[in-house]
Specification:
The complex is a heterotrimer of chains A (644), B (103) and C (180).
Chain A: H1 5-22, H2 28-55, E1 62-73, E2 76-85, H3 86-109, H4 116-135, H5 139-157, H6 164-195, H7 200-212, H8 218-235, H9 244-247, H10 253-262, H11 267-274, H12 276-279, H13 283-306, H14 310-330, H15 334-361, H16 379-393, H17 399-414, H18 416-441, H19 449-452, H20 460-475, H21 489-494, H22 505-515, H23 517-544, H24 546-555, H25 557-564, H26 569-615, H27 623-643
Antiparallel strand pairs in A: 1-2
Helix pairs in contact in A: 1-2, 1-4, 2-3, 2-4, 3-4, 3-10, 3-15, 3-20, 4-5, 5-6, 5-10, 6-8, 8-11, 8-13, 10-15, 13-14, 13-18, 14-15, 14-17, 14-18, 15-16, 15-17, 15-20, 16-18, 16-20, 17-18, 17-23, 18-23, 23-24
Chain B: H1 7-27, H2 31-55, H3 60-90
Helix pairs in contact in B: 1-2, 2-3
Chain C: H1 2-18, H2 22-42, H3 46-71, H4 81-106, H5 119-125, H6 127-136, H7 140-161, H8 173-176
The chains are: A mainly alpha (644), B mainly alpha (103), C mainly alpha (180).
C-alpha cells in the first residue's frame, strides 16, 4: 500500500485533466461527483497507507519514494520524491478527508453557478498541490506545492472575477504571499549553500553535527529558520502578513473552509513542524515564533469581536487559531501544534460550511446584523454550528478542548506571561464565537421580509458533510487524551519524527509531569472555566441584554473604533508600502521611461529608417538578382575554402 | 565492377550536375523550371554525399541524403503551393514579373 | 557503366534546362533522377537508390507534373536586351562556379578517417538493415523532427493552395498584399 502513495497525487491530477478536457458535455452532477470521487479515492489510499504505516515498528515508519529525478545540475539534485512518515500521513489524511467532504458539499453549494466546472478543476488542482506540499521529501518540491496552493488560492479567491472586490482580494492574497515566499526561497538557497542538499533527511540528520562541530554557525541556522518563518507567516496569515486572509473571504464559502481554514493556511505550521529539527537548534527563532504566534492570536481575536460579516468573524478566528499553533511550535510543543491543526481543520471547516449553509439559506446575506432567530428554521445547520463553536471555544469534551488545553499546558511550562495572554485569548475566542452564534441563530429575527420568506434548510448533499464534520469535531480530540499514561496516542505516534526543543522543560518537565498530574488537571479546569466564562458573557451581552454591548461600545468608543478599523493596518500598509511604491512607479514613468527608454526606442527607429532608405536600392524585386547574389556568395565561400 | 571508379570522378560529376542546376536557375524564367533546377542542384549534392559515404565507409552520408530528401519534399510541397497562388493572382509563373517586394 | 549513367544524368539535366515546355523539362528530370539512382546502385547504396526512384522520381515528380498540367503555361517569348545580357552573365557565373568547384575536387582527394561500414560488411549486413537501424536509433530524434517538418509543410501547402483564405469574409490574398 505504501508503494502506492503516488496514487494520492495522481488521482486529483487525473480529476483536473478529466474535468478540463473530457467532461465538457457532462451534467453538473457528473462533474461534481467525478471530482469528489477522485479525492475520495485519494482518501482511501491515504487511509491504506496510514494503516500500513501503523503495522510497521515506529523506527521504520519513514518511507521515501523517488518517483524520478527532476533536476540534476552540478551538485544540486532535486528528485520528485515522496516522503511518507507519521507527520505527512496525518497531513495527507486531513487534506484528503476534509477535502473530500468539502467537495461533496460544494456540489450543493455551487449548484447552478456558470463556473461550476472551472470551480472543480481548481479544487482538484488545489488538492493535488497540497498533497505535493505535504508529501514532498525535499525543500524544492515542497516549494512547488507551496506555490501551487498559492496559485489555486488566488484563482479561487478571485473565482467570481467579475466582482472587483473579489479580483482585488485575489491579487492582494497573491502579492502578500509573495513577500512570504521570498523569505522561504532565500531560506532554501541558504540551506543549499550550507548543507549542499535539499533533501529533508540529509539536511535534518546533518544539521546537529554541523552546528556542534562549528562548520555551520548558530547564527546561520537562526537566519534560515527566521526566513522559513517569514514564509510561514505569509502562507499562514500571521502578523504582519495576515491582512490577505480576511479579504480572501470573497471566494466561495467551501473554498474558505477548505483553503483558508482547514488546509492551505496550515501549510506554514506544517512547514515549521517539518523543519523542527532546524528550529530546535535556534532558540532565538523559537522565541520569535512564539511571540508572533501569541500576538497574532490575541490581536486577531480582538478584531474578530467586532466584525459584522459572518465569514470575516470566522476568518479572524482562523488567524487567531493559527497563532495558537505557532505559539505551540514556539514553545517546542510541535505535536500539540499538529494536534491543534487537525482538530482545527475539523471544526473550522464545519463552522465555515455551516456559515455557507446559512448564507445559502438567506440567499447571499452575510451581515450578522440582518440575521437572528434562525435556529428553528435551520435545525441541522444550527446544531452542527453549535458543536463547532463549542469545539473551537475549548469546552469539554469537544475536540478543541484537548488540543487547546495541550497548547496552554505546554505554554504554562514555558512562561507564565505567555500563558496568561493565551488564556485571555481563549476567553476572547469563546466570546466572539458565541456572539456569532447568538446573533445568527438566536434572539429576534432581523432578516428582511422578502428574504425571510425563502429561508430553507440546505439540501442533504450539504447537510450530510456538516454532520460528518460535527462527529469528527466531537471525537477528534480523543486521540490525544491527556493525563492518562499512554492515552495520548497522537503524541506517541508523532513523537519520533519531531525534534524536541532543547528548552528547559525538555527532560525536567517529563519528570515533573507525573508528579504534577493534579496540577495539570487543575489547569484543565481553569481553561474550561475560561471558555465557559466567555460563553456566559456572550449570552449576557448579545442575547439577553443587547443594550449592554451597545453601552460597552460607547464607553470605550476609541477602542471600538480601533477594533472596527482592524487596527487600521490596511490603511497603514497603504500609506507605508502601497503609496510609496506607486509614487516610485510614477517617478520612473515620468523621468526614466519617457526620457531614456522612449529615447532609445525612437532613436533606434530613426537609425533604422535612415539605414533602410539606403539599403532599399538593393531590393530590386527580381528573383534573378537574388539568385545571382546567392551564387556569388557560394563562389566566395568556395574561394575561401580553396585559398585557405 | 565499378570499384575502379575513383572518388574524384564522382565529385566532378556531382559538380557538373550542380552547375547545370545553377545555370538553369539563373537562365530560366519559368518558376516551375527553376524549381526543377533546384532539385537538380540538390541531386548533385546528394551524389557527392553518397559517394563520400561509400568511400569513407560511413553511413552518415546516406542518413544525410534521407534528410535532404525529406526537406526537398517539404520544400516542393510548399513551393508548388506558392506558385499556384501566384499563378492564380497574376496568371503567370514568370519570376521576373513578380516584383512586389521591390524596395 | 559509370560513364553511361553519367552521360544520361548530364544529358537529361541539360535538357531540363534547355526545353521550352515545362512538361518536357519535368519528364527529362525524371530521366535524370533515374540515372542518378543508377549511380547510387553502383555506390552500393541500394536503399538510397530505391528511395530516389520512389520518392523523387515517383512522388515529387508526379506533383510537379500535376502542377505543370494544371497551370498549363508556356514560356512567353519576351526577349529583351536586358534579359539577354542577364543570361550571358548567368552563364558566365555558372562556368566560373563550375570551374572553381571542379578544380577543388578533381585532384587526388585525401580522405579522412574511415568508418566501420566497409563494402564487405555492408554486403553482409544488407544496406537497408544498417540504414534502418541507424535511422531509428542514433537519428531517431531527427527522424521525428522531420516528420513534424513534413506535417507542417503539408498543412502549409494546403493553407496556401486554398482557393479562399480561411474565413470567407476576409479578402483574397492577392488583393491585400499590394504595396508597391
Amino acid at each position: 500500500m505504501l508503494d502506492l502513495a503516488w496514487l494520492m497525487l495522481a488521482l486529483p491530477l487525473l480529476g483536473v485533466f478529466l474535468n478540463l478536457f473530457v467532461t465538457g458535455r457532462m451534467s453538473e452532477r457528473g462533474i461534481g461527483w467525478l471530482a469528489s470521487a477522485v479525492v475520495g479515492l485519494a482518501l482511501l489510499v491515504a487511509v491504506g497507507a496510514f494503516l500500513a504505516l501503523l503495522k510497521l515498528p515506529p523506527q521504520q515508519r519513514h518511507i521515501e519514494l523517488n518517483v524520478y529525478t527532476w533536476i540534476a545540475s552540478g551538485s544540486l539534485s532535486a528528485g520528485f520524491g515522496l516522503l511518507v512518515d507519521q507527520l505527512s500521513i496525518i497531513m495527507a489524511l486531513v487534506v484528503t478527508g476534509v477535502g473530500f467532504i468539502i467537495h461533496v458539499y460544494s456540489i450543493g453549494y455551487m449548484h447552478g453557478d456558470p463556473g461550476f466546472r472551472r470551480y472543480f478543476v481548481y479544487l482538484n488542482l488545489f488538492i493535488f498541490s497540497m498533497l505535493i506540499l505535504v508529501l514532498a521529501n525535499n525543500f524544492l518540491l515542497l516549494f512547488v506545492g507551496w506555490e501551487g496552493v498559492g496559485l489555486c488560492s488566488y484563482l479561487l479567491i478571485g473565482f467570481w472575477y467579475e466582482r472587483k472586490s473579489a479580483a482585488d482580494a485575489g491579487k492582494k492574497a497573491f502579492i502578500v504571499n509573495r513577500v512570504g515566499d521570498f523569505g522561504f526561497l532565500l531560506a532554501i538557497f541558504l540551506i543549499f549553500a550550507l548543507f549542499g542538499s535539499l533533501d529533508f533527511t540529509t539536511v535534518f540528520s546533518k544539521a546537529p553535527q554541523l552546528v556542534q562541530s562549528g562548520v555551520v554557525s548558530g547564527a546561520a541556522i537562526t537566519a534560515i529558520t527566521l526566513l522559513l518563518f517569514v514564509g510561514a507567516t505569509g502562507k499562514s496569515a500571521q502578523l504582519p502578513l495576515y491582512v490577505w486572509l480576511p479579504d480572501a473571504m470573497e471566494g466561495p464559502t467551501p473554498v474558505s473552509a477548505l483553503i483558508h481554514a482547514a488546509t492551505m493556511v496550515t501549510a506554514g505550521v506544517y512547514m515549521v513542524v517539518r523543519t523542527s529539527a532546524l528550529f530546535a537548534l535556534a532558540p532565538l527563532s523559537l522565541t520569535v515564533v512564539a511571540g508572533i504566534g501569541l500576538a497574532t492570536a490575541f490581536f486577531a481575536a480582538t478584531m474578530g469581536l467586532v466584525q459584522t460579516d459572518i465569514k470575516r468573524v470566522l476568518a479572524y478566528s482562523t488567524v487567531s487559531q493559527l497563532g495558537y499553533m505557532f505559539l505551540a511550535c514556539g514553545v517546542g510543543a510541535f505535536t500539540a501544534a499538529i494536534f491543534h491543526l487537525m482538530t482545527h481543520a475539523f471544526f473550522k471547516s464545519l463552522l465555515f460550511l455551516g456559515s455557507g449553509s446559512v448564507i445559502h439559506a438567506l440567499g447571499g446575506e452575510q451581515d450578522l446584523r440582518r440575521m437572528g432567530g434562525l435556529f428553528s428554521k435551520l435545525r441541522t445547520t444550527g446544531i452542527t454550528f453549535w458543536i463547532g463553536a463549542l469545539a473551537i471555544a475549548g469546552i469539554f469534551p469537544f475536540a478543541g478542548f484537548f488540543s487547546k488545553d495541550e497548547i496552554l499546558w505546554e505554554t504554562l511550562q514555558e512562561s507564565l506571561f505567555l500563558w496568561a495572554v493565551a488564556a485571555f485569548t481563549a476567553f476572547l475566542t469563546a466570546l466572539y464565537m458565541f456572539r456569532l452564534i447568538y446573533l445568527t441563530f438566536h434572539g429576534p429575527s432581523r432578516v428582511s421580509a422578502e428574504r425571510a420568506a425563502h429561508i430553507h434548510e440546505s439540501p442533504k448533499v450539504m447537510t450530510r458533510p456538516l454532520v460528518v464534520l460535527a462527529v469528527l469535531s466531537i471525537l477528534g480530540g480523543f486521540v490525544g487524551l491527556p493525563l492518562i499514561q499512554g492515552g495520548n496516542l497522537f503524541k506517541s505516534f508523532l513523537e519520533p519524527v519531531l525534534a524536541r526543543a532543547p528548552l528547559a522543560h525538555g527532560a525536567a518537565a517529563a519528570e515533573a509531569g507525573h508528579a504534577a498530574i493534579g496540577f495539570e488537571l487543575f489547569m484543565m479546569i481553569v481553561s474550561l472555566a475560561i471558555a465557559v466564562a466567555g460563553l456566559v458573557m456572550a449570552r449576557r451581552f448579545f442575547l439577553q441584554r443587547p443594550e449592554l454591548a451597545q453601552r460597552a461600545a460607547e464607553v470605550n468608543a476609541w477602542l471600538y473604533r480601533l477594533l472596527c478599523g482592524k487596527y487600521f493596518v490596511d490603511e497603514a500598509y497603504d500609506l507605508l508600502v502601497v503609496r510609496p511604491v506607486k509614487q516610485l512607479g510614477t517617478i520612473l514613468w515620468r523621468g526614466f521611461d519617457v526620457l531614456v527608454i522612449d529615447g532609445i526606442a525612437n532613436g533606434a527607429a530613426d537609425l533604422i529608417r535612415g539605414a533602410s532608405g539606403a539599403l532599399r536600392r538593393l531590393q530590386t524585386g527580381y528573383v534573378k538578382s537574388y539568385a545571382v547574389t546567392m551564387v556569388l556568395g557560394a563562389m566566395l565561400l568556395v574561394l575561401y575554402f580553396v585559398m585557405r | 565492377m565499378s570499384f575502379t571508379v575513383p572518388l574524384s570522378w564522382y565529385l566532378v560529376l556531382s559538380a557538373i550536375v550542380f552547375s547545370i542546376g545553377v545555370a538553369g536557375v539563373l537562365l530560366r524564367r519559368n518558376a516551375l523550371v527553376i524549381f526543377m533546377c533546384i532539385e537538380i542542384m540538390l541531386s548533385g549534392v546528394n551524389l557527392s554525399f553518397i559517394a563520400f559515404s561509400r568511400f569513407l565507409h560511413s553511413m552518415s552520408g546516406q542518413i544525410f541524403f534521407f534528410f535532404v530528401m525529406t526537406v526537398a519534399a517539404a520544400e516542393v510541397a510548399v513551393g508548388l503551393a506558392i506558385i499556384l497562388t501566384i499563378f492564380r493572382s497574376r496568371e503567370s509563373v514568370d519570376v521576373d514579373e513578380v516584383n512586389l517586394l521591390r524596395g | 557503366m559509370f560513364v553511361i549513367l553519367a552521360v544520361i544524368l548530364v544529358g537529361a539535366s541539360l535538357m531540363v534546362v534547355a526545353q521550352r515546355n515545362p512538361v518536357y523539362s519535368a519528364l527529362f528530370l525524371i530521366l535524370a533522377f533515374l540515372g542518378l539512382a543508377g549511380q547510387f546502385v553502383l555506390l552500393q547504396a541500394q536503399i538510397i537508390a530505391v528511395l530516389q526512384v520512389l520518392v523523387y522520381a515517383g512522388a515529387i515528380m508526379v506533383l510537379f507534373l500535376f502542377v505543370v498540367m494544371l497551370l498549363n503555361v508556356r514560356d512567353r517569348q519576351a526577349p529583351e536586351a536586358k534579359l539577354r545580357w542577364q543570361k550571358l552573365f548567368g552563364l558566365i557565373l555558372t562556368i566560373i562556379l563550375f570551374g572553381l568547384v571542379a578544380v577543388t575536387v578533381a585532384g587526388e582527394v585525401r580522405l579522412g578517417p574511415q568508418g566501420e561500414f566497409t563494402p564487405q560488411r555492408l554486403a553482409e549486413l544488407g544496406n537497408a538493415q544498417v540504414f534502418g537501424k541507424l535511422l531509428f536509433t542514433d537519428f531517431l530524434f531527427l527522424f521525428e523532427a522531420t516528420s513534424v517538418l513534413l506535417l507542417v509543410a503539408m498543412i502549409g501547402a494546403m493553407v496556401l493552395a486554398r482557393r479562399r483564405p480561411l474565413g470567407a469574409s476576409s479578402p483574397p490574398p492577392a488583393a491585400s498584399s499590394r504595396a508597391d
